[in-house]
Write a structure and sequence with these properties.
312 residues, 7-stranded mixed sheet, 14 helices, 17% strand
Length: 312
């Protein structure tokens, strides 16, 4: 269907660009198709113009054009209408194809300003993660939206834990497609002592166990010690020979990024620090920050070009 729409839109675009048609001809074409092909859907005047916009948006982008054929037409319309820049369109095209989002989940990710959050706040990982699992940077996020839990502002770790278990499907979607649930309060025995890991997952793409520890307060550096202990126990006693070393995620209610950077810089554990939110983000504020980010990036690149020109 998308291939058909692409061909139709290419034909319409060429006719309009060559001044062979006026906009009125498109309306006449839609009426003609409705009369002669009453069972043919999707060729209204509005949709024909959407097809034209679809083709003209992607026709010169050899990198992105193949992606649109991997998604249903409805998904393409959502991405085309809600994205404000080419980078955003490519981001959602790739993510929707990779994660196999439904229409509803794709709209949710736009509402959660996923693109803005990923660009402005990339995942905070330790050097060990970059060395052992470099692809993890595209898997994990700096913040996870748990608005579907409907938790009160003041909640306990037990509330958070039980809420995630009760809405496990929604949590897995928020984590990403390749995450598989292994267990809750997963038992870890070291010596003669028993411990319990909050949540244990397996990531098929990274081929490793992923331990998630929950904290309803602010991140504290000492949390990394316990997480590293759990990862060592998983690698020694649970990990299978063909699997990669386990990764650990501290999911906290809040964090100071400078404290996180200091704590992660010296740890030998493959750990990540992420924040969870129980309320929807202010998308307008994030978009304003993103606009400022791109302006600063453009200014920096212009300065680099001027410096190179002066040096030559």
């Amino acid at each position: 269907m998308v291939d058909l729409y692409w061909q139709v839109s290419e034909y319409i675009s060429q006719k309009l660009a060559g001044a062979e048609w006026g906009d009125g001809v498109v309306a006449q074409l839609a009426s003609h198709l409705a009369e002669t092909q009453p069972g043919l859907r999707g060729f209204t005047r509005a949709n024909l113009f959407r097809m034209r916009q679809f083709y003209e948006t992607y026709r010169d982008d050899e990198k992105v054009a193949p992606l649109v054929r991997q998604l249903p037409w409805t998904h393409n319309l959502i991405i085309l209408s809600q994205s404000k820049r080419a980078e955003e369109r490519e981001f959602y095209l790739r993510a929707a194809a990779r994660e196999e989002w439904t229409k509803r989940e794709l709209e949710r990710q736009f509402g959660l300003a996923l693109f803005e959050r990923v660009v402005l706040t990339p995942a905070k990982v330790s050097p060990a993660v970059r060395q052992s699992h470099p692809q993890a940077l595209s898997v994990f996020k700096d913040a996870y939206l748990l608005e579907f839990l409907d938790l009160p502002v003041l909640h306990s770790e037990a509330d958070l834990h039980q809420g995630l278990l009760g809405r496990l499907k929604s949590f897995l979607i928020e984590l990403g497609r390749d995450f598989c649930f292994v267990g809750s309060e997963f038992p870890v025995q070291v010596g003669k002592q028993d411990f319990a890991l909050d949540l244990l997952f397996f990531h098929r793409g990274l081929n490793c166990l992923v331990a998630i520890e929950l904290k309803v307060g602010r991140f504290e550096p000492e949390y990394l010690g316990k997480l590293g202990f759990y990862l060592e126990a998983l690698d020694r006693n649970v990990r299978k020979p063909h699997e990669n070393p386990a990764l650990g995620v501290l999911l906290c209610a809040s964090k100071d990024d400078e404290v996180v950077e200091y704590a992660l810089s010296r740890t030998a554990s493959p750990a990540l620090i992420a924040q969870y939110h129980t309320q929807l983000p202010d998308k307008a504020l994030l978009q304003a920050k993103l606009h400022e980010f791109y302006l600063q990036d453009l200014a920096a690149r212009n300065d680099d070009r001027e410096s190179d020109a002066a040096a030559s």
